């Protein structure tokens, strides 16, 4: 019996419909721009987020790396939340590839405001590098899947643009954010991205495609992005096999994300009944549940190892903090079973 895997929504497997579409995909050489399925995916992705052009990239990290390179010049600063994926989980590519320093801002819930940002904006001077870009993460991973209020995001973009500063959105779980609005999910995603300059979103997380992410923005920027993708080794050939699954991920999978959110709330509620466990957000906004197991007297590694031995996979990211992520390969019954196992492990 396969384990109940709550480590991440990156572990999702393609649906039967995706597998069939991959089998039948029309392909060509994408470096020559001759793969019709890739072309359709890039056009559709750009349309859905209201941008002129899109670019298929192997990973979200590559998409973020390319976006920052396109929006900055060597020696500038990039403002980011202090727990952002860009800062903590992308191997310092902002420094290595773009030659930029990240200026981190601590937040309570991963949500930057213009008031916070304005204090860190720097003009170029004899002792300071200027601010080249602001990066926002929506939803925010390590803050527990939190979502930017639209008015906050709009203000950041408007104020930044008045000062000639670009805004990039790490929207790895963009459609999870869109689902929380209660509006039609594709229209909501477009509205969320309306004022940002570039946006990256993943096909291979909650949307279930086997590989890939999308970067979207102005056509001229995406032309530069295509060259940077090649430099990073991301120029793929008959990648339409992957794009075929991505098209289904885009059109169909956002419509079911509310199920993952409901399971995350179920899981968080169950965690609160286990002695020694504290949940960061008792009612998670999306599909990520962050919880502290310090009160059990065990480390996150001890808990994780014991769970794995019993067929449940949940990772820790600090000695006492753990993260569970719901997705379409985990049912509500699976969540209940994982909770029962965790309660047993915590009480041992």
Can you describe what's shown?
There is one protein chain. With 348 residues, this protein is an alpha/beta fold. The chain contains 14 helices and 13 strands. The chain has two domains: 4-10 and 256-347, Aspartate Aminotransferase, domain 1; 14-253, Aspartate Aminotransferase, domain 2. The mean pLDDT is 97.
The appropriate CATH architecture of the largest domain is 3-Layer(aba) Sandwich
Strand content: 15-25%
Distance between the termini: 24 Å
> What value does the Rg take, in angstroms?
20 Å
SSE string, helix = H, strand = E?
EHHEHEHHEHEHEHHEEHHHEEHEEEH
Count of domain modules:
2
Give me the oligomer status. Answer: single chain
Shape: globular
Strand order of the largest sheet: 2-8-7-6-5-3-4
How would a crystallographer describe the biggest sheet?
7 strands, mixed
Q: What is the count of β-strands?
A: 13
């Amino acid at each position: 019996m396969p384990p109940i895997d709550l480590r991440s929504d990156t572990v999702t497997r393609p649906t039967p419909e995706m597998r069939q579409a991959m089998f039948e995909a029309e392909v060509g050489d994408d470096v020559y721009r001759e793969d019709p399925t890739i072309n359709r995916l890039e056009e559709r992705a750009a349309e859905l987020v209201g941008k002129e052009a899109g670019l298929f990239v192997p990973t979200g990290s590559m998409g973020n790396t390319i976006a920052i390179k396109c929006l900055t010049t060597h020696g500038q600063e990039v403002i980011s939340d202090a727990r952002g994926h860009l800062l903590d989980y992308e191997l310092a590519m902002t420094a290595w590839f773009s030659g930029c320093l990240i200026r981190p801002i601590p937040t309570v819930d991963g949500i930057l405001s213009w008031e916070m940002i304005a204090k860190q904006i720097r003009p170029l001077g004899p002792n300071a590098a200027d601010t080249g870009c602001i990066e926002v993460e929506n939803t925010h991973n390590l803050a527990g899947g939190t979502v930017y209020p639209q008015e906050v995001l709009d203000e950041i973009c408007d104020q930044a643009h008045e000062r000639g500063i670009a805004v990039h959105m790490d929207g790895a779980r963009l459609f999870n954010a869109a689902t929380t609005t209660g509006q039609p999910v594709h229209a909501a995603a477009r509205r969320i991205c309306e004022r940002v300059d570039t946006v990256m979103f993943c096909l291979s997380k909650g949307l279930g495609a086997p590989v890939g992410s999308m970067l979207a923005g102005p056509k001229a920027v995406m032309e530069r992005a295509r060259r940077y993708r090649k430099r990073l080794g991301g120029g793929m050939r008959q990648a339409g096999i992957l794009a075929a699954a991505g098209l289904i991920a885009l059109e169909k999978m956002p419509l079911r994300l509310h199920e993952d959110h409901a399971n995350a709330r179920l899981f968080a509620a169950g965690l609160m009944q286990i002695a020694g466990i504290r949940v960061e957000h008792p009612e998670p906004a999306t599909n990520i549940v962050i919880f502290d197991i310090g009160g059990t007297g065990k480390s996150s590694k001890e808990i994780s190892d014991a769970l794995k031995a019993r067929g449940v996979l949940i990772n820790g990211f600090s000695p006492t903090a753990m993260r569970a992520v719901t997705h379409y390969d985990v049912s509500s019954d699976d969540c209940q079973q994982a909770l029962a196992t965790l309660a047993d492990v915590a009480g041992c």
